[in-house]
Amino acid sequence: MDISSICIVLFSSTLGLILRIYIQKNLNINIGFNIQNTSIVNFIASFVLGILVGINFTNNGILFFTGFLGSFSTFSSFVYQLFVLLQKRKFMHLFFHYIEVIIISFLFFYLGYYFMQIIK
Amino acid sequence: MKKKSFIYILLACYLATFLRIYINNNFIVSIMGSLLFGFVIAKRLSYSSEKILLSGFVSCFTSFSGFIYFLYKMINQGDWIKFIIFLNFTLIINLFTMYCGFWISRKIN
Q1: What residues contact B11, with CB distance under 8 A and at least 6 apart?
Q2: Residue B57: what pLDDT?
């Protein structure tokens, strides 16, 4: 990895981290039911990933999004949400949360993907 | 958030990001992340230490978008059975690993 690649990764991961912390701390969306902030972060990341897949990026672009999306989205927090439900023995809640996050993430992913196809 | 804590979170994030790029395997990274996450939450750490480890290191180390991309590739190949098996298998393994980390941490205490 050369210096420019390292700089791109450092910059993009900083951006991803700051944005995630900001959203997790400040955003609170309630549309009839409360959506957890970690899920919102992962949905946005899925949308951006869809855009990335929809366009053919150069190496530097891929590196930027590897740093940005990797630091922005978080798989471990998603597993932790499920773990908490498992500990509380809320199995139905766990099952529906799991299904809901996966389905909505894919919806956002394809939304980003087709959005780019239309723009192209 | 204190300036010093934020710098530590950033450094943890950089370390995690380069480690993730170096390992370059989403499945292994997620398992390691879940184990560490479980280990950390079982400990009674200070707010800032927990932030540095969880929000800075583990969250930047594991990647939900990488997981979605991997699943997308399976869907793209039309391999729905592989997709369903891998999706459930990953989640179950990660939950189990997080529990192991949690259990190990409690035992050490």
Answers
A1: B56
A2: 92
